[in-house]
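Appendix B, Record 12. Input sequence as logged:
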Amino acid sequence: MNKNIGILGAGNMGSAIYQSLKKITTDENLHVCDSSQEKLDELNATHTYQNSEDMLAHVDIVILGIKPQTFHQLSIDCSEKIVISIMAGVSMESLKKTHAKKIVRTMPNLAAKVGKGVTGWIANESVTSEEKQNIQAILNTFGTSIEVQSEHMIDAITALSGSGPAYYFLLTEAIAQTAIKLGFSKEHATQIAQGTCIGAATLLEHDTKSATEWKEAVTSKGGTTAAALAYFEQQNFTQTVEGAIQAAQTRSTELNS
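Logged structural output:
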């Protein structure tokens, strides 16, 4: 990709995106701005800035990786740029304060830091098909990207994949805590919990079987797994997960500004 890309914000996500973008472009085409010189120095990037206007003069695409409260205090003119926002709770309407005609709202998740993220995104009507291809190429550098057709679906994917890693961590934490209660050391409990969850996820990634098919494959009639799954069903596990996701979606809608 020959476009000059600017990243505003060199925090956890901004720095992860910078490293990921090197898969599809060169350091020469990447520009990073942050008020912290220390964060910029850690990136060892070719083009760094502490003033956003200085960076904007050199880029075609701007990725907004700053905190929402910082954005609301920001005054920038991106009228000739494509603006891609990764900020939670900042609506397409609010992003118009950048004066950009071409706006993309995205919701990546934490796994973008290791190239395994899931990112939902939507572009406004001013973004062309060719530009969408470039946007998808950018988002795919840090995992899987899914284009949605209406902005309220960004709230849905926020609740599903945006918050999703926390659900996975909760399950891992619960298994580890139970292992300790069953007599394992904290170290071994952590190994059991993490190894089991990561192993199962790896099976899903590298095999054609679905989660449902793997669940059935590991469950013998009248066996230990069947007993555990029956208990989950008695406790309305699926409905509990659904309710939690709906709560997260509702909160995402409330936070939109």
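The beta strands are 5-8, 30-33, 47-49, 61-64, 82-85, 102-107, 117-123, 143-147.
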